[in-house]
Write a structure and sequence with these properties.
heterodimer, A: alpha+beta, T-fold, nine-stranded antiparallel beta sheet, 8 helices, globular, B: alpha+beta, twelve-stranded mixed beta sheet, seven-stranded mixed beta sheet, 32% strand
Chain lengths: 299, 504
């Protein structure tokens, strides 16, 4: 029988790949390890997943407000959202919703920290949480122009950059934000990819850095968020609707502004690094001591 | 149109009053993010998921899958492919009509004519979303409560959208929609009918009101709610049948049992089952019209009280006790056909029944009645005629397709769910919406209902009946070139490409 109306859905996409979906949440989950452990992990993850959206909806009005000291959400995902956003809230306008996708990934990835599982990855629309057992690593690529997929001779997705994360890199969260994405951006970046200790923090930071990658150019089309979408947490703030081909000076200005923002959060220890892509320019903000991107021998 | 056969809220049509025919399920192009629109108050509430967005016209909800197009909640969604757990990867995927779109004019090939291999045989599936004016829903509502007199009008949003039809054993049947309500009445009636039909097909809960009867909340696969009360159980049988089933278990515990039922109320000591067990006559005098011994019609009026009657006090259906036959101390059980209502009484010295606490042995029998009842559900069956011009999307020779279905050479499915094909002329299909993928139905402003339909056959048969061979494309191509979403099939459905149509 079909599930109840509006219920969560899952689908096995391959031997080690699953798709969970509920309302606006779409997760692609990869699990590698021995079959029994993976199966247990997926089952536990599915049990937990079904409560995630109803739990968030209960607290939605609170989560859509600007973060302040009085905000006290109850649910486990909502608490992760708040914890991630509070670090940025003194200096920037931010609502807990900036970390919702990453927080969902973080909450569910904990189900895979089990003996027998080699590595797992939950990709929530570009906001990714990782689990790595000793000896495992992830090779992560950045694609800032998904529409060009299939344009390369091999038919593969063209990558703008790639790096490796192993168990000893202090990175378990990767998030990408851009004006073409599902969430609104105030900036013009094709993509801002952030590495952080968890996906919720990476998600919030990518949103803020994406907003900062900005410049004044008459061709950029902006519109108040609340005229594009109902119930947006951004109110009447102008969000980016279209970005024309920008002159080099505008690209430079936007990328520099984004770098300044990324370096601020890196120096505070909130993120490890970031990569900003804008119309062919790729700006990488390296970790201070470069711990995330240097491959170390297993201890 | 026969004005006497169907109630309508009628207005005169003028040409400019008609809506243009326009498919709303065509694709995502209607909602361009690059076109900011002014906020309007014409919002629709989306209940596709717990977020429950209120979406303004021209915008999408939080998921970007659903949007408000001209004031109607519309799927902005990829096509649906259903997957079946078999090892052969290609044979495991079936492209459904959900989200496939339609073609106009009809003679153009259907949106997708796909081929796949199954057991070494080339199989073709013609996939389309049909725009159905001639279609309706038959609702089977498991309840004994009085919903309304037969032929009474059913209203949704104040408009007449269908009628009460026959009562079946333990269930009341309703007919909803149909061409006379969609296009035969006022514009508002058509719109209300169309909206209701899409909601029912998409397994949503809807509020109905029956003239001279009850208000109802019905939803595919869910218990019906009658006058605000959720129905939980379907009766074990009519009052007489209940006595036939349980008489032996009451022996020795009780002197008289009355099973209250709106249809046939049973009296144990007069019933053949009681006579057979040599149970002493109790002298009870029941109101209503005696049919055969121990079986009474019309002991009360229909309602939502005991056993589908309007009674709240069970003693109100007893006219009295015969002082020559009855005796003080007589133990009387009154119970409804679902065991939901029950009362235990003992006659005093004046032969007046007095309520007493029910002995535990009697309580067990009442519980047994309840345990033998099935859960009450609403079943929603979609009935549609696919015999018209829709066939031209598959073949140049429409009668060939009709005949091939009747000859078991072509399977017909709706969203991958097995469809029963009615005997006789045309392609009249019937399918349980519970077996179809969620959100399979849409609407067009005609008004008419959009539903998926697929015809599956061998490639050689497709060619023989004049199919659009030039439009056949491999499943892999459709898979690669179109946005699609995969759903797990209801495993009780026979897999479409392995079966022929369920012929009547």
């Amino acid at each position: 029988m079909s599930g109840p109306v509006g219920g969560a859905a899952f689908e096995r996409l391959g031997a080690e790949r699953w798709h969970f979906q509920h309302g606006p949440i779409d997760l692609i989950i990869d699990v590698e390890g021995d079959a029994e452990a993976s199966q247990r992990g997926i089952a536990a993850c599915w049990d937990e997943f079904q409560g995630v959206l109803p739990g968030l909806v209960r607290e939605l009005p609170t989560l859509r407000c600007a973060v302040d000291d009085r905000t006290t959400p109850r649910g486990p995902v909502a608490r992760r959202m708040l914890r991630a956003c509070r670090a940025f809230a003194d200096e920037r306008f931010i609502t807990s919703m900036a970390a919702v996708a990453g927080a969902v990934s973080d909450h569910l990835i904990t189900q895979f920290d089990q003996p027998g599982i080699q590595r797992a990855c939950i990709n929530n629309g570009g906001d990714i949480a990782l689990f790595l057992a000793p000896g495992a690593n992830f090779r992560v690529g950045i694609c800032s122009h998904p529409e060009r997929a299939g344009a390369t001779p091999s038919g593969r997705v063209p990558l703008s950059g790639a790096f490796t994360i192993d168990r000893y890199a202090p990175v378990r969260g990767i998030a990408t934000s851009g004006w073409r994405g599902r969430s609104f951006s105030l900036g013009v970046a094709d993509s801002v990819t952030v590495l952080a200790a968890d996906a919720a923090t990476a998600d919030a930071a990518a949103t803020l850095i994406g907003n900062a990658v900005n410049c004044l150019h008459s061709g950029i089309v902006r519109a108040p968020a609340d005229q594009l979408k109902d119930d947006t947490d951004l109110g009447s703030r102008l969000v980016t609707v279209d970005v024309p081909r920008l002159p080099t000076s505008a690209v430079d200005a936007a990328v520099v502004a984004g770098r300044v923002e990324a370096e601020l959060w890196r120096d505070r220890g909130l993120i490890f690094g970031a990569a900003i892509a804008l119309q062919g320019r790729m700006e990488v903000v390296m970790p201070v001591s470069n711990p995330a991107l240097v491959h170390r021998a297993a201890a | 149109m026969n004005e006497h056969s169907t109630g309508h809220t009628r207005v005169d049509h003028v040409a400019e009053d008609m809506d243009p025919t326009l498919s709303l399920t065509a694709g995502p192009t209607v909602l361009q993010r690059a076109v900011p629109e002014r906020s309007t108050t014409n919002k629709v509430r989306c209940d596709a998921c717990p977020v429950l967005c209120n979406i303004s016209e021209g915008r999408t909800g939080a998921c970007d899958r659903w949007g408000n197009v001209n004031g109607l909640l519309t799927r902005i969604d990829p096509m649906v492919m259903s997957r079946h757990p078999v090892p052969d990867e290609e044979a495991s995927v079936f492209l459904t009509g959900v989200g496939s779109g339609t073609t106009y004019p009809d003679y153009k090939p259907a949106p997708f004519i796909v081929s796949s291999r199954h057991d070494g045989v080339d199989i073709v599936t013609v996939v389309t979303e049909g725009i159905f004016s001639y279609c309706s829903f038959k609702l089977k509502i498991d309840t004994d409560r009085f919903l309304g007199p037969e032929q009474a009008s059913i209203r949704f949003d104040g408009e007449i959208v269908g009628h009460v039809t026959t009562a079946e054993y333990g269930s009341q049947m309703l007919s909803i929609g149909g061409v006379h309500h969609l296009t035969g009445g006022s514009k508002k009636e058509g719109r209300a009918t169309c909206e209701l039909m899409a909601a029912l097909g998409n397994k949503q809960a809807v509020d109905l009101a029956i003239d001279g009867g009850s208000t109802l909340v019905v939803q595919s696969g869910a218990p019906p709610i009658v006058n605000g009360e959720r129905e939980t159980r379907m009766r074990v049988g009519c009052g007489s049948a209940t006595i036939g089933i349980f008489a032996k278990q009451w022996l020795g515990l009780l002197d008289e049992v009355v099973v209250v039922d709106d249809h046939i109320t049973g009296v144990l000591t007069e019933h053949q089952a009681g006579k057979y067990l040599d149970i002493r006559p109790s002298g009870i005098d029941l109101k209503g019209r005696r049919s055969t011994p121990g079986r009474y019609f019309k002991v009360a009026n229909p309602g939502t009280g005991w056993g589908g009657t309007d009674i709240e006090d069970p003693l109100s259906i007893i006219a009295g006790f015969d002082d020559e036959v009855s005796w003080p101390g007589l133990r009387l059980l009154m119970v409804s056909t679902t065991g939901e209502h029950s009362g235990y009484f003992v006659l005093d010295e004046h032969l007046v029944p007095q309520p007493r606490e029910m002995p535990s042995e009697v309580r067990q029998v009442v519980t047994l009645i309840a345990e033998n009842c099935e859960p009450a559900l609403t079943t929603v069956l979609f009935v549609a005629g696919a015999g018209g011009s829709l066939r031209a999307g598959a073949t140049r020779s429409p009668i060939g397709l009709t005949q091939a279905i009747k000859n078991s050479r072509v399977n017909v499915t709706c969203g991958g769910a097995a469809a029963y094909v009615w005997p006789g002329g045309g392609i009249t299909v019937m399918v349980d919406v519970a077996r179809m993928p969620d959100r399979s139905f849409g609407t067009v402003p005609t008004p008419a209902v959009v539903a998926p339909i697929e015809f599956t056959m061998r490639l050689s048969d497709f060619e023989m009946l004049g199919g659009h061979m030039e439009s056949v494309q491999p499943l892999q191509t459709v898979w690669d070139q179109h946005r699609s979403r995969i759903v797990s099939v209801d495993t009780t459905n026979p897999w479409p490409i392995r079966h022929t149509a369920l012929l009547g």
